[in-house]
Amino acid sequence: MDDTAITDILARQVAASTFDGLPPEIRHEVKRSILNFFGTAISGSDAPALAVFLSTLPHSPTVGPATIIGRSLRSDVLAASFLNAASANVADFDDTHVPTVIHPTAPIAPPLFALAEQRQMSGAEFILAFVLGVEVACRIGNAISPHHYRKGWHITATCGVIGAAAAASVAMRLDHIQTRHALAIAATQASGLVECLGTGAKSVCIGNASRGGLWSAMLAQAGLDGPYRALEGDNGYLAVLGNGAQGQSIVSGWGNNWQLAQNAYKPYPTGVVVNPVIDACLELYRRHGTKPRDIGLVTVHGNPLLLLRADRPEPRSASDAQLSAQHAAAIGLSFGEMPLWLFSEAGLRDQDIAALRRKVRLHADPNLDVEAARVVIKTVSGTEYEQVTTAARGGTANPLSDGELEEKFQHLTQDRLSKEAKRTMVKHIWEMEELDDIAGLLALATPT
């Protein structure tokens, strides 16, 4: 074997991996990821962007092999993958691989659920395929970070499409050569711009990654080939999108330190870099109860990535507000909680929030971790209050518990599913490896 042929080695590793090789804690993390996925996908299925997508993609109440989550509609497997991925990510309430800020489940899970409706797929088969898809996406993400994201590539999409192809290849039982072709075909579809964040076009990035990954595996199974060195070639993925990053780290230590262990789940519907800011603001509200009208200035100190991604003092849309540190801080200091509706157009138009938002200033502090922040309030009378967050709630150092993830799921689906459907879905997800047919979850994920 040519040890410089990264794409081929990766394909061999993916094709040779087994369920028995997965540690119990990683199998459990899949369940946490999928519980979170269904909550965000069901909640996001009625977002305005999804209505636009549905107006242009095939769907029917009865015809079509694949379920559109959160709606009593069906479609073909590729369109369903696109729509379900977009739903899961549209509100920025999905999971995050902290080292890369990839949101892995949104692009990777939908192809597996679409495939599960074509042929029976056990819970164990799903778990293996999902873990391997996340592993591929996040290992590639590690190799090209931080340059890739800073250059303007939407890393969830550009890495997610290859992860989705890997997951689909496993679920479709492709051999290593077919898997290599699938990875190569996916690599040439890698696209997505950070400039799209805060707009409906962001969801196109995520939907295309999911659909493209599944299509890549389908094309490879049908006999289409791709370049042998799609990742590491002179004109390959790493050279073009990764600033010439070396690919050896993508394949070294395979089976150790699974990337899913570094997945985190958001307690708030915003970018993960904003979480520590929200924690600090909520604590300031709890301790001091300062009224918005009494606040003269709010100074937020955060990691430089906070400013790079979330310095949006005048968000232009609800999607933009979801990524605005100023908007999130104003909500936390005004209400002492983070209701989802305040990240909608109604929240964006709230004049009291807008007035406080204009008083928020961001400052970069490279000594602060991405999961840390310092917020200082100065009142109109000159009094100052300070709050420091060192480990944001929902981060890897302060993760949401299983119970908190259940509460999040219940909240996101409260008006969409019956109590019995929710109870059954939660039970089946926690018992996933015992399921003979994972597609049963999709039957529960339709509104009542």
From TrEMBL:
Q: Can you give the residue ranges of the MmgE/PrpD N-terminal domain?
A: 10-245
InterPro entries linked to this entry: MmgE/PrpD_sf, MmgE/PrpD_sf_1, MmgE/PrpD_sf_2, MmgE_PrpD, MmgE_PrpD_C, MmgE_PrpD_N
- For this UniProt record, give its keywords in alphabetical order, as a comma-separated list: Plasmid
Instruction: Quote one Gene Ontology molecular function term.
Output: lyase activity
Q: Where is the MmgE/PrpD C-terminal domain?
A: 268-430
Gene3D superfamilies per record: 2-methylcitrate dehydratase PrpD
Report the SUPFAM superfamilies cross-referenced here.
Answer: 2-methylcitrate dehydratase PrpD
Member of which family? Belongs to the PrpD family.
Q: Return the protein name.
A: 2-methylcitrate dehydratase PrpD
Species annotation: Aminobacter aminovorans (Chelatobacter heintzii)
The organism's taxonomy opens as: Bacteria, Pseudomonadati, Pseudomonadota, Alphaproteobacteria, Hyphomicrobiales
